[in-house]
Write a structure and sequence with these properties.
- The structure is a single chain.
- The chain is mostly helical.
- The protein has 2 domains: 68 residues, no CATH class; 66 residues, no CATH class.
- 52% of the residues lie in helices and 8% in strands.
- It contains 9 helices and 3 strands, in the order αααααβαββααα.
- It has a 3-stranded antiparallel β-sheet.
- The longest helix has 17 residues.
Length: 168
């Protein structure tokens, strides 16, 4: 499987080159991400770090550092918004503000334990499909169907890569 961090860096590199060349779609993507601290001339003032931030924000993270930290498993206090996009709100799910409670519900009822920022949700296979992932992907089994504290961090990275591929 492709290393997700390397893949995201490559996406940022491509975005940077496109923006420097004046590509309107690339510039639109960048201007949608307010607060980058850019001066009026995007093509000349844009840095790669800005594009890394754009890529991270498009995936529901606050910053590039936030994305790296969560994807690498170094932080689990805020997972961003990637795992609960608006299109998935029509599906059945159970929310909890407490991981231990969510884990207990997940153990009892089954499903998939996901995270949204610092909250937790248990969802069914239809939610996972709408999210853009295969509910029967072997990575789920390797993770124990638990995104928050997976049995296999590599399996979770594989699913992050698949989600990013769908979005980028």
């Amino acid at each position: 499987m492709v290393d997700i961090i390397s893949s995201l860096k490559a996406n940022a590199r491509i975005l940077h080159r496109q923006a420097q060349a004046g590509d309107k779609d690339a510039l639109t993507r960048i201007t949608k991400n307010h607060g980058l601290g850019l001066k009026p001339s995007l093509e000349t003032d844009l840095k790669r770090r800005h594009c890394l931030t754009v890529v991270a924000r498009e995936l529901g993270f606050n910053s590039w550092g936030h994305a790296q930290s969560v994807i690498d498993g170094k932080s689990d206090d805020d997972f961003g918004t990637l795992l609960s996009p608006t299109r998935c709100t029509v599906h059945w799910n159970v929310w909890s503000a407490n991981y231990d409670e969510a884990k207990a519900i997940h153990s009892e009822k089954g499903g998939y334990l996901l995270a949204f920022k610092n909250q937790f949700l248990i969802v069914d296979e239809h939610f996972i499909t709408t999210l853009g992932l295969d509910p029967n992907d072997k990575n789920w089994t390797e993770m124990g169907h638990n995104w928050v504290k997976p049995n296999s961090l590599e399996a979770r990275k594989n699913l992050y890569a698949k989600l990013a591929e769908n979005i980028m």
